[in-house]
Amino acid sequence: MTEAGAYRQIPGGVTAARGFSASGVPAGLKKDGKLDLALIYSEAPASAAGVYTTNLVKAAPLELTRRRVAAGTARAVIINAGNANACTGERGLTDAAAMARAAASSLGISEEEVLVASTGVIGVPLPVEKIAAAAPKAAASLSKENHTLASRAIMTTDLVPKEYAVQVHIKRSVVTIGGMAKGSGMIHPNMATMLCFITTDAAIGSEALQTALKKAVDRSFNMITVDGDTSTNDMVLALANGQAGNPEIKTDTEDYRLFYEGLLEVCTALAKMIARDGEGATRLIEVNVTGAPTKQDARLAARSVVGSNLFKAAVFGKDANWGRILCALGYSGATFDPTRADIFIGDVQVARNGGAVEFDEERATEMLNQDPVTVFVDLKSGAYSATAWGCDLTYDYVRINGSYRT
């Protein structure tokens, strides 16, 4: 366990919070009997919040879930991998609703209390009959211990499951916030090919939860990139069932600040796991920008550098080509004076005032061989800062995406 600020990391992922259980089972959507159906369940009705992809093309499960989250409460989430149920027309909406019905029937709850998510290949009808057949097994397998099985069941090209949880002391109560995520390719700011499910036993209303979630997503999942693509199914969902027994958290209070810090920690940890597990990636990249005239300028600058394919390829090759960093800053849309920018790769300064400076190439190569690779940029044009995360661009990225559908 680790401690930082007002929160403490604990094991348990999406089932760490009181009253939540999860499962992961094979439904036959993937080959070779792999896990491909996950279920998350709350013993009590929970406040619900969600943030969704900005892509104009939105998958059927996302459309259904967004409507149900707007009602304010939910009890369960059913998630399948292997098929995105996207660009499937009216049938897609019918199949998404059928997924929810199958889960609701197996759990003995109302269909309207079930949220739905899917990930996988686009444009292929969902074999919903397989999900309906597997839903009773998923419900029967629910437990506190099956959080990792659930996180594995939502993976597509991910190499590792992604889960994280923290505890926060609020008044005299201990509030737990946990979650799981998937994502490896088609990752870019403003939501990417990623799903994230966060659970908490905090007592907090849906409006306050929505406010906290959107702010946390902006600082975490919207600050990662792998390849510049944004998909059709992406969402972050949060459920809060109130079983911690704390006084209800209201916005603009100290309780809210403490809760938000814990939520941001969970979102940031999961976001960095996604970036580190980028398709074909060998190293995480972290870009820290300081000295920007506005917060937005700092965000634009950091995201531009971490998203530069040229710089990502240079990291893979351990080439301290700082010109690619300055170039990415220049087209980022951020306002700054290029003749004042300083750039560091790890502890090696590679540019000063927007120009060349002598540096130790061997030491810079060592810094580029670290994981994570850290880049520091001081624009010396203001007081704002931001951090973004990504990964290197490798030969394996092309190999994976050259045959993704087949």
UniProtKB/TrEMBL annotation:
EC number: 2.3.1.35, 2.3.1.1
GO BP annotations, alphabetical order: L-arginine biosynthetic process; ornithine biosynthetic process
The protein's name in its UniProt record: Arginine biosynthesis bifunctional protein ArgJ
Feature type site, description Involved in the stabilization of negative charge on the oxyanion by the formation of the oxyanion hole: 119-120
One GO MF term: L-glutamate N-acetyltransferase activity, acting on acetyl-L-ornithine as donor
Top EC group: transferase
Keyword entries, A-Z: Acyltransferase, Amino-acid biosynthesis, Arginine biosynthesis, Autocatalytic cleavage, Cytoplasm, Multifunctional enzyme, Transferase
Involved pathway(s): Amino-acid biosynthesis; L-arginine biosynthesis; L-ornithine and N-acetyl-L-glutamate from L-glutamate and N(2)-acetyl-L-ornithine (cyclic): step 1/1; Amino-acid biosynthesis; L-arginine biosynthesis; N(2)-acetyl-L-ornithine from L-glutamate: step 1/4
Marked site positions, Cleavage: 192-193
